[in-house]
Amino acid sequence: MYKLARSFILFLMISIFPVFAIEITPMVVTLSPEKTAPFSIIYNDLPRDIAFDIQVYEVKFDKAGIYKPALIPLNNSPLWVFPPSLFLESGQHQKIQFRWLGDKFPAMDKTYQVSLIEEGINSISIAESSKLRILMNLNLIIHIDQEALKPDLVIGKPYIEKGYLITRVINRGAGAARLSDYNIKIKKKNIKVGEYYKNQLKERGYDVFFPPYCSVLIKLPIPKSVKKDGLYGFHIDLVG
């Protein structure tokens, strides 16, 4: 009875008190020399003011696709982010702009992480500063995408494990790509036995980024039609 009452009180608290947050949209940005400079908008829905310092990192992907990407901090980044720091009053929003400042775009598509690192505010009251507060970090991903640079995807031999069709994809090109850019055709003896259309898996929350000159493992749910055809002899085609 006590647990039930406590749960009911918790439900009432969640229902009565609003949920406050920081919102950034979009959080994944594509920057291209052929298009207008992009931007994101940050909204402060917290009941307090907030300040951020901004740090830019270059994302270094593991070519073998085994280890997590490394973040290299850049002091003189060719990716220009404005403003370089943020102060948002409660309820305020701010545009964050991105532009390429290098003499020319890189010889291959690159990826950067823009981190918004919360800073303490000197103007808050002593009563507020004495409260326990966890400073937040927010990360945006900036992909440099150049139409002149193309991916060159080589698809390995797939295998089945725990209900998934798994294969390794090697991008031998200077351009990046995403799994959602392609129709995925699953074949056996050159006969199509299953297919996922562009964005179909992305709509379910699954997408894969293929960096230039890197290897990436992909896991595809096995369509029912594939299960009926046995477990061997499959190959996968990605059709743009």
TrEMBL record:
Gene3D superfamilies: Immunoglobulins (2.60.40.10)
Name of the protein this chain belongs to: Pili assembly chaperone N-terminal domain-containing protein
